Amino acid sequence: VKAALSCNDREAILNSCEYGENVTIDTYRKVLTNDLQHLSFEQQTIINKQLALIKIDRDLLKSMHESMVAISLKN
């Protein structure tokens, strides 16, 4: 089990999660830019709130990744 959670595996997992969050953010932004006329005000509000939460999660993942890299460089 410990080998499965090595630094490289953790880094790969965080990279994958960050990538997924970035793709999601791009998709939300495209919807808000290209399809705004098809969304009600309520739908726009929901999508904007969700986008804000996804950005927070992505930033947390990025911070975790940076911390992990910094720790691995010290060792």
Shape: elongated
Radius of gyration: 17 Å
The biggest sheet amounts to: none
Number of helices: 2
Task: Estimate what percentage of residues fall within beta strands.
Answer: under 5%
Helix fraction bin: over 70%
Through-space gap between termini: 21 Å
Query: Which segments are poorly predicted (pLDDT under 50) over 5 or more consecutive residues?
Result: none
Q: Mean pLDDT score, rounded?
A: 88
Give the helix/strand class: mainly alpha
> What is the element string, with H for helices and E for strands?
HH
| SS elements, strand count | 0
Task: Summarize the topology.
Blueprint: H1 7-34, H2 41-74
Describe the structure.
The chain has helices at 7-34, 41-74. It has 75 residues and is mostly helical. It is elongated and about 55 Å long. The two termini are 21 Å apart. The mean pLDDT is 88.
What are the defining features of this structure?
75 residues, mainly alpha, 2 helices, elongated
In short:
The chain is an all-alpha fold and 75 residues long. Helix content is 83%, strand content 0%.
